[in-house]
């Protein structure tokens, strides 16, 4: 690999520039010229450091998955895996809401404004998924393993439980991002959490216990959001003061 191609600082600038463009203009405007300009580089920046736009987009998708993994890592392993799984579901949703176009890219749904997979196209098998994907998904499997080992549900392969929860949360997120729940006052509280509760109860957990656990996770998420909002307000005030 050339010295230029391996420069981590410049590569990071191009990745961050692409993420900003996805958030502000959408995938159709992610082009070599616009990304390089956003990063403060010459037009050839994308080709010099990645080889082309497709390679850049793969790196951007991996960065998005690393952010999802980081959000999962912020959820502590408590003595209540049901609450932890609920917290992970809420964290998954929050990552998607921060940059919906980045989320689409992370899961191979949209590149340059069009769907990238056609009907009949096989999804990559597990062994072909990126290390960034595995870093995020493995944390969900670990939490599901604690769920089974703690006898909260029937003795079921934790990887299958993880697939079910992953599918449920991802499906909810995609529908919410497409405004299918626009008429619902609090989609996470009224749709996402009850859906996950029902899934875990169907696996053998006691409903009263599940609902108590997820209520704890919801309260913690609300408290965290309140602290984050105060921090943002304080930072904004300091910036204006300067």
From TrEMBL:
GO terms for molecular function: DNA-binding transcription factor activity; transcription cis-regulatory region binding. Residues 31-50 bind DNA. InterPro entries: Homeodomain-like_sf, HTH-type_TetR-like_transc_reg, HTH_TetR, MT1864/Rv1816-like_C, Tet_transcr_reg_TetR-rel_C_sf. Keywords: DNA-binding, Transcription, Transcription regulation. PROSITE patterns: HTH_TETR_2. It holds the Pfam family TetR_C_33. SUPFAM superfamilies: Homeodomain-like, Tetracyclin repressor-like, C-terminal domain. Transmembrane segments: none annotated. Residues 8-68 form the HTH tetR-type domain. PANTHER family: HTH-TYPE TRANSCRIPTIONAL REGULATOR RUTR, TETR-FAMILY REGULATORY PROTEIN. This is TetR family transcriptional regulator. It comes from Paraburkholderia ginsengiterrae. The lineage of its organism: Bacteria, Pseudomonadati, Pseudomonadota, Betaproteobacteria, Burkholderiales.
């Amino acid at each position: 690999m050339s010295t230029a191609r391996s420069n981590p600082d410049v590569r990071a600038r191009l990745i961050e520039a692409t993420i900003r463009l996805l958030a502000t203009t959408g995938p159709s405007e992610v082009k070599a010229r616009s990304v390089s300009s956003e990063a403060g580089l010459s037009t050839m920046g994308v080709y010099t450091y990645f080889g082309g736009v497709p390679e850049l987009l793969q790196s951007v998708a991996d960065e998005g998955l690393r952010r999802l993994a980081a959000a999962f890592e912020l959820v502590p392993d408590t003595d209540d895996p049901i609450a932890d799984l609920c917290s992970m579901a809420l964290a998954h949703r929050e990552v998607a809401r921060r940059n919906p176009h980045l989320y689409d890219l992370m899961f191979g749904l949209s590149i340059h404004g069009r769907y990238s997979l056609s009907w009949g196209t096989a999804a990559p098998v597990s062994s072909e998924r990126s290390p960034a994907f595995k870093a995020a998904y493995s944390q969900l499997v670990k939490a599901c393993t604690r769920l089974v080992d703690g006898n909260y549900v029937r003795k079921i392969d934790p990887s299958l439980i993880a697939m079910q929860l992953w599918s449920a949360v991802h499906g909810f997120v995609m529908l919410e991002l497409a405004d299918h729940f626009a008429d619902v006052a609090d989609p996470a509280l009224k749709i996402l959490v009850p859906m996950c509760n029902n899934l875990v109860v169907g696996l053998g957990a006691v409903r009263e216990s599940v609902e108590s656990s997820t209520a704890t996770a919801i309260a913690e998420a609300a408290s965290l959001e309140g602290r984050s909002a105060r921090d943002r307000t304080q930072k904004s005030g300091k910036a204006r003061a300067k």
